[in-house]
Design a protein that fits this description.
With 132 residues, this protein is α+β, with helices and mostly antiparallel strands. It has one domain. Helices cover 17% and strands 42% of the residues. It has three helices and six strands, in the order ααβββαβββ. A six-stranded antiparallel β-sheet has the order 1-2-3-4-5-6, with helices on one face. Strand 4 (90-97) and strand 5 (106-113) form a beta hairpin. The radius of gyration is 17 Å and the shape is elongated.
Amino acid sequence: MPPEQIRGTVDSLSGVAGMLKKVAETESCDGSTAIYDGRRRSVAVMTSSAMVQLSGQGSLNGRALNCGFTVRTIAGLRHEDDREVARRPLKGSVLIALREGGAFPLPLHFEVETRWFGTVAVQLAGPPVAAE
């Protein structure tokens, strides 16, 4: 991968953290991020799809933002990869609790398509517990 294609990218986890920071500041997830995972360069495009009201979530009752995203690999494909399949955008969504009092937003539910396992979903098991 040429250095000019890596410049300005972040790893996937930093991309998620940046999106959550944007949500904290703007209550929107609209934007894009250049990602490099050590082999592939991808572009993630996020869009705010709906504001929803949470209930039955204990201390997380309140507003939440539903965001959709696509991730498209643009470089770093292996020679044996089917180019059309490898460049097909993967879609996903994340439900983010907007917390009161300046607390950082909290991803509650995350789904993303994968090429190997189908759709992977991650669900927050419970609200954060205050440290003693």
